[in-house]
Amino acid sequence: MNSLTQSATSSIVRKASRFLLTTRRFSDSNLINGDETDNELPPPVEETLKVTWETTEMDCGFTEEHEKVSVRKRFVESNKLSASLVLDTLKQDCPGFNTKSALDELNVPLSGLLVREVLLGILKRLSFDNKTRCAKLAYKFFVWCNGQESFKHTANSYHLLMKIFAECGEYKAMCRLVDEMIKDGYPTTARTFNLLICTCGEAGLAREVVEQFIKSKTFSYRPFKHSYNAVLHSLLGVKHYKLIEWVYEQMLEDGFSPDVLTYNVVMFASFRLGKTDKLYRLLDEMVKDGFSPDLHTYNILLHHLATGNKPLAALNLLNHMREVGVEPGVIHFTTLIDGLSRAGKLEACKYFMDEMVKAGCTPDVVCYTVVITGYISGGELEKAEEMFREMTEKGQLPNVFTYNSMIRGFCMAGKFKEARSLLKEMESRGCNPNFVVYSTLVNNLRNAGKVLEAHEVVKDMVEKGHYVHLISKFKKYTRS
Q: Does an H or E element contain 177, and which?
């Protein structure tokens, strides 16, 4: 660790470099591309809303607030009703049917919320068989809205339509929409870039998109230092690690200087690509440039040491962090435990979990889920059950990933009754199963020859209105 500077400060929260290094992909999230936040934990509440009422104004304030809530509620309900009418009209679209006139006759008041509700409705109705039709209907409605007096789309509306095109594989239509967006004066943002880069597929196309955004004068890259950092951060989210290296080289050629965020992103890409020498070379460059490793830098190093089965070196790094004034937190211990579990070192996982508690860090739901998943992958269901009980006893409520790991574990052990029981338990606790949970249970039931039970699970899912638009992913299932 001689390359690590002793001058690391206690100012440990750096610019907005957000690495979800500890959030393990417990399941195949590519099965579903629903709402943007489907597979993410909600961010912590950063500020508590404090309302102070003067005694003499309490009644008046309550009445005004109540009226505002009522107005908002009526507005939302009205838009949902209008959206339902619009969707019913769009369904009738066919040769000979004048969709534009039919929409005009609805006489619905246009708003950004209505557009969002309609586009989301189309997105939810997507299936393998109707992708082209859905894309056309979405664009037809979008164009109709644009033609209405005193109405102007928002950037969010453009992004939603782009998402529909992405789901439908309409890449060229997405590019045309971005051109239209720029022409109409909308700034392209990191969100625009993310949607495009996720759909490109081929590395050649991805590079073209990157070049277009780096050079674009309309690219709103804030809060990042420059467009390169914005692009690098986005590429990290979609795991384009090789492209990250290329962008970094372009950045240096264009005379831009890296900062802590830049180094962290490129070091993580090097780690993922198995380029250990480059990772530590970048770390040396970072220190020489006057930057101290931050929380995320140490997280990357811990992850590398853990997955490389070097628990002793990881322990030394934790001690080094303390020496330079950076106190390891839950995220560092969780990253370390995650890496060790991937390496199959479950005893080491338990050791560092105990060390974590000794250091005054309380394991959270992510940490427990990492350990549980490690036990499941290692075929130690009983230990996973023990950890599951412990977390609930200590007030850590299991999340959808925890339940999915446990359900998978029960299925692997042939305990399908327990797996189905756990599905019911998570619903009763207000934890809504995502599509991955359902598919884990259904696929395992089918593989075990329990076709009728699998059918029952899918039927129950449909009756509850969950993921009906993804029903085609369950082969041989027909709705009665």
A: helix 171-183
Can you give the three-state secondary structure of 296-322, one letter per residue? Answer: HHHHHHHHHHHHCCCHHHHHHHHHHHH
Q: Is 190 helix (H, G, I), strand (E, B) or coil?
A: helix
The Cβ-side half-sphere exposure at 368, using a 13 Å CA radius, reads: 25
- CA–CA gap between residue 471 and residue 439 (Å, rounded): 10
| Cross-strand pairs, 219 | 188
Residue 197 contacts residue 210 (beta carbons within 8 Å): yes
Q: Is 16 helix (H, G, I), strand (E, B) or coil?
A: coil
Distance between CA atoms of 71 and 207, rounded to whole angstroms?
48
Nearest to 88 by CA among 48, 125, 58: 125
Average pLDDT over residues 98-112: 93
pLDDT given at position 193: 85
Q: Is the Cβ–Cβ distance between 386 and 350 less than 8 Å? A: no
Distance between alpha carbon 148 and the CA centroid of its chain, in Å? 35
Exposure string for 204-232, b = 16+ CB within 10 A, e = fewer: eebbebbeebbebeebbbeebbbbbbbbb
Beta strands in 132-267 (DSSP E): 188-189, 219-220
What does pTM read for this prediction?
0.66
Nearest CA among 336, 328, 316, 323 for reference residue 361: 328
Q: Token match 């001689």: residue?
A: 2
Question: What does the block give as tokens for 21?
Answer: 């290094």
Which of 304, 261, 311 lies closest to 279 in space, CA to CA? 304
* pLDDT tens digits, one per residue of 43-78: 332 232 223 223 333 344 555 555 666 778 888 899
- Asked if the model's pLDDT at residue 274 lies above 80, the reply is yes
Contact indicator for 31, 439 with CB cutoff of 8 Å: yes
230/189 Cα distance (integer angstroms): 9
Record the tokens describing residue 204, joined without a space: 């050649």
Contact partners, residue 378, CB within 8 Å, separation at least 6: 341, 344, 346
* Residue-wise DSSP of 28-79: -GGG---STTTTSPPPPP-S-------GGGHHHHHHHHHHHHHHHHHHHHHH
Sequential DSSP letters for 397-441: ---HHHHHHHHHHHHHTT-HHHHHHHHHHHHHTT----HHHHHHH
